[in-house]
C-alpha cells in the first residue's frame, strides 16, 4: 500500500531522479557532439598506408575521367590534398545545420592510420584551393575565425578556422594552390578545416554538400 504519511519525493527518489536527469543530459550531449567518422566506414576500404603517404597532389586534384584543369571553375578534390583525410563532422548536422546556412564538412588529418582525426598531424597542415577564383580573406571572425573565400562567377568555397594565410584578398588562385594552414581559430574545439561549397543559382548562392565535389575521390 502507498504510505500517505511519507512525502512522495523522498531523499532516495530525489537522488534517483537527479541521476536519471544527469544520464539523459549526458546522452543528449553525446548525440549532439559529433563523433569522428572513419573514412573507411563510408568510402569503402581505406587506401593502403603507403598509398596515403605517396598520394601526390596531382592525383588528388585530378579525379579520373573528368579532365579538369587547374583553372576549372567547379570545385573538385580535397582541400587538404592528402588521402589520410578524415571527416570529423558531416554535412547538415551539428554546427553545420541548417545546411542552407551552415552546410559544411569538417576535415582533419589521420596521422596514425587508425581512421580518426589526429590533432598533431592536423595543426598547420596545408590547405589548397579546390578551384580557381578570387580570394577574400577575413581575420579573426566569429564563428569562422581566420577565413578564406574563393569566389568565381559560378562557385565559391569557404575555408574556416585557419591558423595562417598563404594568400591575400584580391589574389587570383587556381586549383591546387596553397591558401593557408589548418588551425583552430574562431568557434572551434580543435584543429580542423571547415570547408563549404556554394553555387550561384539564379542569382542566389546555394549551399551544396562538399562531398559531392570529390573531397574523398582519391585516385591512386
Ligand atoms: Zn564545421
Q: Can you offer a commentary on this structure?
A:
The chain has helices at 11-32, 39-42, 49-54, 57-60, 99-102, 119-122, and strands at residues 85-89, 105-109, 126-128, 133-141, 145-151, 155-165, 172-173, 178-182, 193-201, 204-208. The longest helix has 22 residues, at 11-32. The relative contact order is 0.17. With 220 residues, it is α+β, with helices and mostly antiparallel strands. The protein is elongated and about 80 Å long. The site of zinc ion has 6 residues, from loops.
Features of the shown structure:
6 helices, Glucose Permease (Domain IIA), alpha+beta, 10 strands, binds zinc ion, 2 domains, 220 residues, single chain
Helix-strand pattern, N to C? HHHHEHEHEEEEEEEE
Multimeric status of the protein:
single chain
Q: What is the tally of helical segments?
A: 6
What spatial form do the alpha-carbon principal axes imply?
A: elongated
Structural class by secondary-structure content = alpha+beta
User: How many domains is the backbone divided into?
Assistant: 2
Which ligands, by name, code or SMILES, are bound? Answer: zinc ion
Task: Return the CATH class of the largest domain.
Answer: Mainly Beta
Largest sheet: 10 strands, antiparallel
Please tell me the CATH architecture of the largest domain by its name. Distorted Sandwich
Mean pLDDT: 82
User: What's the CATH H-level homologous superfamily of the largest domain?
Assistant: Glucose Permease (Domain IIA)
Give the N-to-C terminal Cα separation: 73 Å
CATH topology of the largest domain: Glucose Permease (Domain IIA)
Amino acid at each position: 500500500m502507498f504510505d500517505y504519511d511519507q512525502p512522495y519525493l523522498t531523499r532516495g527518489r530525489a537522488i534517483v531522479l537527479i541521476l536519471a536527469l544527469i544520464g539523459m543530459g549526458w546522452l543528449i550531449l553525446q548525440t549532439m557532439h559529433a563523433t569522428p567518422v572513419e573514412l573507411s566506414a563510408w568510402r569503402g576500404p581505406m587506401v593502403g598506408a603507403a598509398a596515403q603517404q605517396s598520394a601526390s597532389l596531382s592525383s588528388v586534384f585530378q579525379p579520373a575521367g573528368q579532365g579538369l584543369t587547374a583553372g576549372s571553375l567547379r570545385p573538385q578534390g580535397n582541400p587538404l590534398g592528402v588521402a589520410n583525410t578524415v571527416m570529423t563532422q558531416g554535412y547538415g548536422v551539428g554546427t553545420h545545420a541548417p545546411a542552407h546556412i551552415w552546410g559544411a564538412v569538417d576535415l582533419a588529418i589521420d596521422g596514425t592510420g587508425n581512421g580518426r582525426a589526429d590533432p598533431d598531424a592536423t595543426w598547420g597542415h596545408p590547405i589548397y584551393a579546390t578551384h580557381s577564383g578570387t580570394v577574400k580573406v577575413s581575420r579573426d571572425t566569429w564563428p569562422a575565425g581566420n577565413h578564406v573565400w574563393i569566389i568565381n562567377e559560378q562557385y565559391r568555397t569557404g575555408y574556416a578556422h585557419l591558423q595562417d594565410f598563404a594568400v591575400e584578398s584580391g589574389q587570383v588562385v587556381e586549383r591546387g594552390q596553397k591558401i593557408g594552414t589548418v588551425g583552430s581559430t574562431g568557434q572551434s574545439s580543435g584543429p580542423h578545416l571547415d570547408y563549404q561549397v556554394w553555387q550561384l543559382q539564379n542569382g542566389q548562392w546555394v549551399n551544396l554538400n562538399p562531398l559531392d565535389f570529390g573531397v574523398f575521390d582519391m585516385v591512386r
